[in-house]
Design goal:
CATH topology of the largest domain in chain A: Nucleotidyltransferase, domain 5
Largest interface: A-B, 53 and 52 residues
CATH architecture of the largest domain in chain A: 2-Layer Sandwich
Structural class of chain A: alpha/beta
Largest sheet of chain A: 5 strands, mixed
Shape of chain A: globular
CATH superfamily of the largest domain in chain A: ATPase, nucleotide binding domain
Strand content of chain A: 15-25%
Number of domains of chain A: 2
Oligomer: homodimer
CATH class of the largest domain in chain A: Alpha Beta
């Protein structure tokens, strides 16, 4: 039995996870950032005990605790070197958590890497090369090579959303221009939808947005499925941005499996079919075994499960 | 003592290499493609003996032979699954070479991977993450992770030149649009130079091209250094394409070292200084240890040395 902690800017979520990647029990508390890391870790520790005991276990049943945290992590020491969201610099996260659980094996991973590792383990954890792409507020990624999280030499590898898809394109929040994230994130889709509605106020898509009181990641998809041709254009263009990034990742990594997760992945085959077609047509290595493209299977649980599985691997 | 074979579409080059990555002797023959792989391998074997003997050694002194070949390679069996340049499908290259040298350890690698491995070993072979980018006729790459060539699950990983730098941009020879290669290769630089000369026939750059009877990868660089402002624009734009791809690779891999090779790398710091500046400014992971950017050190010898070193690793 393992505990997985998904530390976010908004919530701290903790789950009790078995060796088969199944969450038996979970609970969460608000992160209430900014506050000291000691207070946040105290909440983590309390949640760990609560979740374990509410499932009928004791801490003696727990073989390890894994934490997925925003920011770059020095995995050997479990230190968060730099975490923008929580304004953390050189926070000794593993050391602090260890104080609450002496002798307990503790693993700390970057949150995107932990989620990718969860998705990897959910595919069976057998392949030597695996890439996870998450289309959310941003575009995140995780790379699993030789069954291990690939972190780069400074713990910050896998920023797949920040390769350039359009040289000198839209400014990205990271300071660079034209990042994949600026075109393929849900944030970008909402902007693309908004721009299309502004130019075409008499469309079904515009009515959906008005009825909902806002534009979200589903507005264009829903309207397109209902036959709105302007919405269809938005969706086609958006998917082409995703697909062009996916084929780029395939050409670089040739992973055995690439999964696409995040809110938009709920669109399932409606999203995946054109991506598959694009990759099939434009991947560099034709005539060879091809990367299997899948929708991520764990949704919001990937963070907790991946963190717990990182503790297993520890 | 090892033998490294660099098999190209034009020449077969063989070098006798010591364990310190030094070529003691080398020789080459024309590939004379297309012809049967048996004939090509026979020439390889003859070159191996010639080079060894001309250096005063015998085949008994050779501890292994490595081959860098175009195409995708199944490294376990040493089979070239598909090699476009030589029109090879499922060629049992290691097996055929073994017939000439029974009992000899033989390694077969993709040529770009072999060259990257050579550059890696030339940096000392100590880092866990290393990326080589080659700016030549195309843009090639090689990825060394955990001290091993990263090949992907089908032997075709590392096509760094074929990530998309400009969505829906220039058509690439690979069939996709907007590949990095279409902007950052020497071929692309020549086209960019040509276009600028056509629009600005009264420039120093145009005169250089006329005097040389052709435009090459140096035309714009030479004219820019001599004060031609149009040439300077071409060079600045070209370097910005390279730099934007390099920062993309840094964000994805966070390699400890990234080297840039190929003909253009002869420009040295004139090329590297603006690339360093761009990466420093736009890399995602600010405040962390940064990737060291270097000019590749082996030039045309990388293929032979890398192939030989692959035999050492075997």
């Amino acid at each position: 039995m393992y505990l997985g902690i998904d530390l976010g800017g908004t919530n701290i979520a903790v789950g009790l996870v078995d060796a088969q990647c199944k969450i038996l029990k979970q609970n969460s508390r608000p992160t209430n950032a900014p506050r000291s890391y000691q207070e946040i870790v105290k909440d983590m520790a309390e949640l760990c005990r609560e979740v374990t005991e509410s499932a009928g276990y004791t801490m003696a049943d727990i073989k390890g605790i894994g934490v997925g945290t925003p920011g770059s992590v020095e995995s050997k020491t479990g230190t968060v070197v730099y975490g923008n969201n929580l304004d953390w610099y050189n926070v000794p996260l593993a050391e602090e958590l260890q104080k609450h659980f002496p002798g307990m094996p503790i693993a700390v991973e970057n949150d995107a890497n932990a989620a990718a590792y969860g998705e990897y383990m959910a595919t069976g954890g057998n392949t030597d090369s695996f890439v996870a792409v998450t289309l959310g507020t941003g575009v995140g990624g995780g790379i699993i090579l030789n069954k291990k999280i690939f972190r780069g030499f400074n713990g910050a590898a896998g920023e797949l959303g920040h390769f350039t898809l359009i040289h000198n394109g839209e400014p990205c929040t990271c300071g660079k221009k034209g990042c994949w994230e600026s075109y393929a994130s849900v944030t970008a889709l909402i902007q693309q939808t908004q721009a299309a509605i502004a130019e075409n106020p008499d469309t079904l898509m515009a009515r959906y947005a008005q009825e909902n009181g806002k534009i979200n990641g589903r507005t264009a998809f829903d309207a397109a499925k209902a036959g709105d041709s302007v919405a269809q254009k938005v969706v086609d263009q958006y998917i082409s941005y995703i697909a062009d990034g996916v084929v780029s990742m395939v050409n670089i990594f040739e992973p055995e499996i690439l999964v696409i997760g995040g809110g938009i992945s709920a669109e399932g085959e409606y999203l995946m079919a054109p991506i598959r077609k694009h990759v099939e047509e434009f991947a560099y290595s034709k005539g060879l075994p091809q990367t299997e493209l899948r929708i991520a299977s764990l949704a919001n649980d990937a963070g907790i499960i991946g963190a717990a599985m990182a503790a297993v691997a520890e």
